[in-house]
Amino acid sequence: MTDLSKIKCFLLDMDGTVTIGNELLPGAAEFLKYLKESGRDYLFMTNNSSKNSDDYVQKMRGLGIACNPIDVMTSGEATVNYLYSLKPKARVYLMGTPELEKQFLDYKFILTDKNPDFVVLGFDKTLTYEKLVIGCDLIRAGVPYIATHPDFNCPMPNDAYIPDCGAMMELIKASTGKTPKVIGKPNREIVESVFRKRCQYKPEEFAMVGDRLYTDVKTGINAGITSILVLSGEATMKDVNESDVKPTYIFKGVGEIYEYLKEKDGIDVSCVVNS
Fold first, then answer.
1. pTM of the predicted protein model
2. CA 13, CA 216: separation in Å to the nearest integer?
3. Cα separation of 69 and 88, whole Å?
4. Which of 13, 252, 260, 262 suits 145 as a labelling partner, its CA being 20 to 30 A distant?
5. Strand bridging mode 153-156 / 160-163
């Protein structure tokens, strides 16, 4: 097991891990500050492809956290990187928000419904029946089909949820019988995009931190890096005990990771539950 004090870059889920809605979780500001002060690094990693990196930069700066586009990886950006590695300037039929469209256009992809090389499904809050009809026709015709991430629901304030990309995938599957290649958490492709963005670090120097077993922790496992579950969001210890997905470390929240690292960067078993 990797000594957590040796981790140089922490990949941080956002909602339920660092933020809740438009507020920082307790200890998050101190944790992020200490990472920089101690010569470590962090990168925010989110499956939400309805927004782009610039949106998250503005959000975090508004919360008093120093942040630049290089400090954010969305599943949309990871999908752009993946497709660019296959075919730069490809023709893409995109079911996504204007923010996601901008990411594709910035990489010089051609967005079209005429003879596309790929069909891409994102968390499309602007999804229409017309978009679905065109997308399903192309998918049935055999055009390679990619989805940004598999989340069924997107959490909202007051314990509410709205349908996310995974729910849209199920609708398309019911109509076409086809399932996409998925890029975002828990798949390795999103971490490979991070490896390129933080190429100065070795894989063993990364850790994935998040509040969900089936996305965040599974991402760490699939990418072969240290995984840290925080109990500040969705997952509980009951979930851990009943799941086959086991994190490397478990903390109550990122504030506790901060306290742990502060204690001479040594393991304090009183504040760490080791799986």
1. 0.89
2. 7
3. 21
4. 13
5. antiparallel
